[in-house]
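Researcher: Here's a chain I'd like modeled. Treat it as a single chain, no partners, no ligands.
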Amino acid sequence: MAKLLNVLTLTMVLIASSASAEDQNGVTAYDSKCASASPGDQRAARLNARSFKRSSWTFYNGRASKPEGPGWEMYLPLIKRTIDTHCSPETAGFARALRDWQSLNQRIGGRPLVVDGIMGVNSANSMKASWHLNRFHVRRKSKGLACRIVPRTNLVLIEPEEAYNGVRRYLDPRALQAFRQMVARAKLEIPELMESNLLQIASGWRPRPASQRQGDGTALARDCSSHWSGMTVDINVGHSTGSPTDSTYSNRLYQSRQEIYHWLLDNAGEFGFVNYTFEPWHWEWHPEQVVDKSGGVERVAVSKGS
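Model: Modeled as a single isolated chain. Structure tokens:
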């Protein structure tokens, strides 16, 4: 009897300890939401867990200058925001959220999606298409409008303390104002940034080359670089090797895991900035839109001359 009481007491202590920890960090609700699902979602979760780091398909067509994968781990932060889930990719909750997104987004990217909760190339292409169409110069091109090209005389020079490695860049004055407001908010919410070179500008406006094909990840943007507009900034979000704009997959994967990149995904849209998803450092300012964290856009007043 005493032995039984000891076992029961130990069990109650473990339960109480577990409940206490769960009450502090919300594990119970989080795990329950991500774990409970139908057999179909559980199967999808197993397949997603396999492809997460070693899928044969990739979001972009990897080439020597911009290598990809394997897997889709680098895009996970944006995928989770797109399908509105905090669940990790190996969970049934992630599969359920993806299945719901597939059901609601049948007409993006051309080919109808199979509603199965499995992250595959068709879902990736549909997500990529929706992400691209939120970019200002891609939307212009999709409407048959000319690429926005501005001369340096229309731009302003950033301050030395805003420049990565001291190289000062030119930007559209409205984009620079929005960028400064965004950085001020980030430093309030992440105090460590005050003594860091994170969020410094590594590149801004670039002149259009005399003859060179350009394209930021989509056929709609071919022969058009967002940097020509003066409304794009390459931001230092950290780097594992090389520079903040090192396109190796290992560097981009490292950047996708950084707190500041996640902060930008959650907050940059409030200031009108959209990420070119292949490059965690590349953020384009929209003169006519505010962008929510899932990548959707809401039209707002646009300044003349945009």
